[in-house]
Write a structure and sequence with these properties.
By secondary structure, the protein is α/β, with parallel strands linked by helices. The protein is built from nine helices and nine strands.
């Protein structure tokens, strides 16, 4: 693939932050080569991006929204191509967004050891048919409680560095989502997540969902902060133009919730950065 050029960053401050959540066309519901995601990361004055396409799963599990196991090598090649095209000082790193689902732990353990990943996001995707078939019993309240139980179990599995869009289930039936009703179950899950040491994501793409607020919303973010749970911001980009989208707003949300640091991962090790410094570097 030919060199596409690199947009000029809109700030002269040294880049220090990553967008750590984005996809490729291999998941069948995203567009754009990783090279294009890299270019937009450069234009946002990011230090780098971590590609985190949806993990392959066995036996055609949720196959309509993810790469097949046979395409995993292609995924790594696409990420490598973007890394080779990146300008000096900009990093394109290999990550994965892996679905947590009961019984999938052995598959994920093997997958995560099959490459030199920098970052593994764990996701409980309530909306995939396999999850709905297994856990939807016609009671939206019980479904939410089960979701947050699974969120805690995913942290306790030891498989993940961070948990993606952790209140995603509020989009299941937004008309009867009341935070106060489900708060005791969220707090119980957060207690377990905090004990596990796993980070959590502030996913800016929530602004484009049925409930137009980031995932998690401000109330849950405050509960996370009070428990000392680290946070990584990710755009969940499914097209290149959304890389780094609403990051300044997300950083402001973190500060309002009580955070003064935001995290990134490299080689599956967490690094904490001062929010005040990150805000100075990201282009609007």
């Amino acid at each position: 693939m030919g060199h596409l050029g690199h947009p000029f960053p809109m700030t002269e401050s040294p880049a220090i932050y990553f967008d750590s959540h984005m996809h490729t066309p291999l998941c069948k519901h995203a567009e754009g080569h990783p090279i294009e995601y890299m270019q937009h990361g450069v234009s946002k004055n990011l230090k780098g991006i971590i590609m985190t396409c949806h993990s392959p799963m066995p036996d055609r599990f949720s196959h309509r929204v993810r790469m097949s196991p046979e395409q995993f090598g292609t995924y790594m090649e696409m990420v490598s191509e973007a890394a080779e095209e990146a300008p000096d000082g900009f990093d394109v790193l290999l990550g994965m967004e892996s679905d947590w689902f009961p019984g999938m732990e052995p598959w994920l353990t093997e997958l995560h050891s099959s490459a030199d990943f920098h970052y593994i996001l764990g996701s409980v995707h309530w909306h995939i048919p396999e999850y709905i078939d297994a856990f939807w019993k016609g009671d939206s309240s019980a479904f939410r409680i089960q979701y947050f139980e699974h969120l805690a179990e995913s942290a306790e599995s030891g498989l993940f560095d961070s948990l993606a869009h952790p209140d995603l289930v509020k989009n299941a039936s937004p008309e009867d989502w009341h935070f106060e009703t489900v708060q005791p179950h969220i707090e119980s899950a957060l207690d377990r997540i905090a004990a596990s040491g796993v980070a959590m994501e502030l996913n800016t793409s929530g602004l484009n969902k049925v409930m137009p607020e980031m995932n998690p919303g401000p109330q849950m973010l405050e509960l996370m902060c009070s428990r000392g749970i680290p946070v990584v911001i990710g755009s969940d980009s499914h097209n290149p133009g959304r890389v780094g989208e609403s990051f300044l707003s997300g950083l402001g949300m973190l500060e309002k919730a009580g955070y003064d640091k935001v995290s990134i991962f490299r080689e599956r090790k967490r690094q904490d950065l001062l929010i005040s410094k990150v805000k100075e570097t990201i282009a609007p």
